[in-house]
Amino acid sequence: MALPSRLARSSVRRAAFQHARWSSSAAKPLSLKERLAELIPAEIENVKAIRAAHGKKSFGPVLVDQLYGGMRGLPALIWDGSVLDAEEGIRFRGKSIPEIQAALPKAPGGSEPLPEGLFWLLVTGEVPTQEQVAELSRDWAARAAIPEFVEEIIDRCPPTLHPMSQFSLAVTALNHDSAFAKAYQSGISKKEYWGPTFEDAMDLIAKLPNIAGRIYRNVFGQGKLPAIDPAKDYSHNLATLLGFGENPAFVELLRLYITIHSDHEGGNVSAHTGKLVGSALSDPFLSYAAALNGLAGPLHGLANQEVLVWLRKMQTAIGEDASDEAVKEYIWSTLKSGQVVPGYGHAVLRKTDPRYTAQREFALKHLPDDKMFKLVGQIYNLVPDILLEAGKAKNPWPNVDAHSGVLLTHYGLDQMQYYTVLFGVSRAFGVAAQLIWDRALGAPLERPKSYSSAAIQKMFKDKP
Ligand SMILES: CC(C)(COP(=O)(O)OP(=O)(O)OC[C@H]1O[C@@H](n2cnc3c(N)ncnc32)[C@H](O)[C@@H]1OP(=O)(O)O)[C@@H](O)C(=O)NCCC(=O)NCCS
């Protein structure tokens, strides 16, 4: 939902207001699908109005450098769930991380937002009630089982196969039962695409804990996978499947973790890949599996693994409680050997990532004396100046990955090759929400124009 004009937006909101939270006929809160069905017609009109009014306006010139430079800053996508500001960081449907921490429903006794609420917000632009969030928890628990053959695929993977590769294989295989693929085969009308896409998106999110938990236990030998408990929220169930469900602080961490990793606007590799593949009308399982393969790269989601690997190597090389001088020297040695400092820098952000700050605040509350947390803080005081002095990175500040692994390690989830899987579970929320809207709004096949270097030379021949 783009909803650009405040006027259009408020009249749509007013019209829907009576129905926003409760159906008129019974005292039962609207389900997410019911609320979405209400919102779609107005949003289709809204997009039509934007295109009629502004469709032929230019966003500005495209530089040749942008073609060679990974399309940085090129305005090319619509993504409604979140927008990333270089200075301020992410906003989910207009709300900053502190704002969603305050606004979204919490678990009884908890203080972190429930990712169920974040998904509702991403899909509708509205903050759900506690009851609507509880209904989503129940719905996802009811959809959580994975087919036996998918369990077998995971069980047959050698433990040496990276958990992200196993994750992607299993998600691809879920396409076997895709509601969208079946509906498409039986000739569904384009106007109805969003319905089965919604069902697949819900199934995708719901099944990820069973996949992620099974991979974790297979690879790291942590006993038999327990069953999903329909009375628990999504994060609590995932924590239980990983073997940490008895630790309330870990469960809270997971709620925060999933929420802040869910979405980071549309241009990052995983989000864009999901959208691109979805534009070919590949179902949400195929689209998200493709996104996961992008997330598995070290410049993207794998950076959370890389940070821990780097910190451990540093501790082996210079010991725990090392002096600032020794840490500085280690950071310089990383740079001089042609490697990046993992967890620092960003393609868009130019300030400390608020997702880093949210995790730091969690650590200050729950684990202020943890040695690795202290090392992360020490590094934060040293790396930016060093990257500035080195003179290459446009953003010397930490990103989300600089912090996440240390928190997981504190609670005993110290198998760093697994960290990107948790990022993958989280990122499904943002990609799934956008896939639903893309199909609801009839987003077309993506097909940007590519050029050869020879064509560019020819284009500018004799032009100074
Ligand atoms: C995230 C990242 C891929 C963004 O890349 P980008 O948009 O190309 O970043 P920049 O424009 O600032 O890159 C300019 C130069 O600075 C370097 N640079 C950027 N971040 C750096 C870092 N953390 N350490 C060392 N060098 C870095 C780049 O490698 C590039 O070098 P080059 O000109 O020799 O190719 C990059 O900052 C990086 O590799 N960070 C470490 C990995 C990481 O934390 N990834 C998770 C991102 S959420």
TrEMBL record:
Family matches, as InterPro entries: Citrate_synth-like_lrg_a-sub (IPR016142), Citrate_synth-like_sm_a-sub (IPR016143), Citrate_synthase (IPR002020), Citrate_synthase_AS (IPR019810), Citrate_synthase_euk (IPR010109), Citrate_synthase_sf (IPR036969)
Superkingdom: Eukaryota
Pfam families: Citrate_synt
A Gene Ontology molecular function term of the record: acyltransferase activity, acyl groups converted into alkyl on transfer
Record family assignment: Belongs to the citrate synthase family.
Active-site positions on this chain: H300, H346, D401
Cellular component, GO annotation: mitochondrial matrix
Record bears the keyword S-adenosyl-L-methionine: no
SUPFAM superfamilies membership: Citrate synthase (SSF48256)
Signal peptide interval: none
PANTHER family found in the cross-reference section: CITRATE SYNTHASE, CITRATE SYNTHASE, MITOCHONDRIAL
One GO biological process term: carbohydrate metabolic process
UniProtKB keywords: Transferase
Protein name: Citrate synthase
